[in-house]
Amino acid sequence: MFGKAISTPRLLIALALGLATLSSAMAQSMVSVSGSTVNMRSSPGLRSDVLWELKRGYPLRVLQRRGRWLQVVDFESDRGWVARSLTASTPYHVVKSTTANVRKGPATSNPIVAKADYGDTVRTLGRCGKWVHV
Hints:
- The chain has one helix at 24-27, and strands spanning 14-15, 30-33, 37-41, 50-55, 59-66, 69-73, 79-83, 87-88, 92-94, 99-103, 112-117, 121-123, 126-128, 131-133.
- By secondary structure, the chain is an all-beta fold.
- It contains one helix and 14 strands.
- The longest helix is centred in the N-terminal third of the chain and has 4 residues, at 24-27.
């Protein structure tokens, strides 16, 4: 399980292929981790086993809601429960390829300004065709 965030200037930066994509329908059932580190648990409740530690921005798809808890699944199909109060609707993507080029704009002709590795999370600012503005 990965959850490190990468920092990049707020230029028009886009990532091509290799990102976990969010359709508009899925975006409605997506949350991201808002706490600096959040425990994904085996069941709803503070006494249940901690399965993973998730970092700020890590995107999760909501499967169900139970009181103050959300049952979620990540991009690797790991399931667990997180406290609803430690999530937000801020959109993020996870890099699913070994390495992805972060470019100055939404075309392969634009210069590479950074690289992102498998499991890195990037804040999603928008979309341009098949490109993601981060």
